[in-house]
Amino acid sequence: MKNILTLFLVFFGISTFAQEVKPYQIYNSKGKKISFEKMVKELQKSDLVLFGEFHDNSIVHWLQLKTIKALANKKPLILGMEMFERDNQVYLNEYLSGKLSEEDFAKSARLWNNYKTDYKPIVDFAKENQIEVIASNVPRKYASLVYKQGEEALLDLPEEEKNWIAPLPFPYDATLPAYVKMMEMFKDSDHANPNFPKAQAIKDATMGYSIVSNFKPNNLFVHFNGSYHSNDYEGIYWYVKKYNPEIKIATITVLEKANIYEISSTEKQLADYIIIVDEDMTKTF
C-alpha cells in the first residue's frame, strides 16, 4: 500500500511539474482552453485561416508547421505568406517545382533573415507535397513609396509594376482601430503623418487581394502573417471581406505572457483562437 501511495505521489508530482512548464496554451474566442487537435478540427470548417504570428517566436513557427501537416491530411491546401513579396512569385514557383536550387532561390527571392530557421520547413513541406505557396505581400519599395509620397505616387507606376499591388485606388478606412492605434503610437515621432498607416494598409490590401485572387473552392487557404495584420478582425481580414465577403475566415493570434493560464476579456477578442506562449520561449532572432 505504501509503495502504491509513493508511486501515486511521484506520478502526481511529475504531472504537476509538466503542467507548470507547458510552453503554450490555446484558447478560443470565448476564453475556453482547447487542445491543438480541437483547433485543427474546427479550422477545417473554414475557407481561409489567417495565422497571425510573432516573427521571432520559435514555438509558433513549430505550431504553424504542425498545423499545416495536420490539415493537409484533411483538405487540399493553398499556403500564402507575408514573408514573400509578389514580384518574387516566379522564384518561389521555380523552387517549389525543383527548377531552382536552394542557393539560387536564396539569392533571388529577398528572403527574410530568419527564413532558414522559421519558414524553410513550411516551404519545404509544401514542396514535398506539391502544395501551392502564394507570395502575398506588396514589394517593400511600394509601401515605402506610399509612406513618402501617398497613394497618388502608385498611380504613376508602369502597369507591369501595378500588378504587384492591390488594384488602385485601394479601399482604405483611416478610422479602423488598428490604423488609429498606429498613429497614436507614433504621434510624437517623425513617422506620424497620414501616410504612415496607409503604408501599412497597402500591405494588408495586397495580401487580402492576393488571397482572394488565388482562392479556390473546396481548398483551405492558410495564410501566415504578423499578428498585427489580422488581429481584431481588421487588416487582411477586413480587405478579404471587402474583396470577397463570401469567404469564411478563421483567425489565429499569438500572445507572450508570464502566465499562459490567464486570458483577459480584451485578449480573447483578438481572434478566433489565441495561442498564449510562455514569455521565456526562445526567440529565433
TrEMBL record:
Domain Haem-binding uptake Tiki superfamily ChaN: from-to ranges: 39-240
Pfam family, one: Cofac_haem_bdg
SUPFAM superfamilies referenced in this protein's UniProt entry, alphabetically: EreA/ChaN-like
InterPro entries, per the entry: Cofac_haem-bd_dom (IPR007314)
Domain of life: Bacteria
Protein's name in the database: Iron-regulated protein
Originating species: Paenimyroides tangerinum
